[in-house]
Design a protein that fits this description.
Layout: H1 2-33, E1 39-45, E2 60-66, E3 85-86, E4 101-102, E5 120-126, E6 141-149, E7 160-176, H2 179-184, E8 190-196, H3 198-210, E9 212-217, E10 231-232, H4 233-237
Antiparallel strand pairs: 1-2, 3-4, 5-8, 6-7, 6-9, 7-8, 7-10
């Protein structure tokens, strides 16, 4: 008798599985029948994304939606958003659109997005002589050499010294000191904005405020650095 009951249980389970499978197939057919023909893939935020944040793959998801509900400027592939920076807060489930992201091409319109991580943008005043005849361009790397009068305890002042204070510094932008000044005397006074660490900013600012600086343009393939002592007036007349 137990064997007979067990047989019916097995038959019931098998019938249930068959019914579930048939129902699943039926739902698939219904879904396919009423599935819109204009579905497109869109990229949405899988979790909240804060402004000024580098977007990672785990923050994104892809969803199919009818074309009429997809934003015309929406991102269609995750790779188009990865590595870019969000310029506004993006809520979870919100579609990612191009205007909310900043990539390499868009960085030029806002200097802050071009500043490397852990560095700061510092501008210095230059002229044709100090800026290598204005041959320095954005993306170039320069060394900064400063000439200063060393302070002493008496009023006569110390010897004048020249020293390399910074090496291999990236140029973020090249501009003028105000549009009005440029119109009155084109090319007379310009500025360069350099990417420096907070530690590098201190000698740079001090040298520009209390001494004079010149920039040395580096070759793009040269990553050498030198450790040289300060050069003084006595060094010029030594035999």
């Amino acid at each position: 008798m137990l064997k007979g009951v067990k047989k019916y249980w097995i038959i019931s389970i098998v019938c249930g599985l068959i019914a579930a499978a048939l129902f699943y197939v039926f739902l698939g057919q219904v879904e396919e029948k009423y599935r819109p023909d204009d579905l497109v893939m869109v990229v949405k935020a899988a979790r909240p994304i804060a402004a000024d944040q580098v977007i990672k793959s785990e923050q994104l998801m892809t969803v199919e939606v009818p074309a009429r509900y997809a934003h015309p400027n929406g991102i269609r592939d995750v790779s188009e958003a990865m590595g870019k920076i969000s310029i506004v807060d993006i809520a979870a489930g919100e579609e990612i659109i191009k205007e909310k992201l900043v990539g390499e091409k868009e960085k030029v319109s806002r200097l802050a997005y071009s500043v490397p991580l852990n560095k700061r943008a510092v501008s210095i005043g230059v002229n044709e002589t100090t800026a290598v005849s204005f041959n320095i361009q954005v993306g170039d790397h320069v060394d900064v050499i400063a000439t200063i009068d060393v302070e002493t305890s008496d009023s006569t002042g110390g010897p004048t010294s020249t020293v390399i204070i910074l090496q291999d510094i990236e140029v973020l932008s090249v501009g003028v000191m105000g549009a009005a000044a440029e119109k009155e005397n084109p090319g007379a006074v310009k500025t360069l904005t350099l990417a420096v660490t907070p530690e590098q900013a201190r000698p740079l600012v001090l040298a520009t405020e209390r001494g004079s600086i010149r920039l040395m343009l580096r070759s793009p393939v040269d990553d050498s650095k030198y450790s040289l002592p300060a050069y003084k007036m006595n060094n010029l007349i030594q035999p």
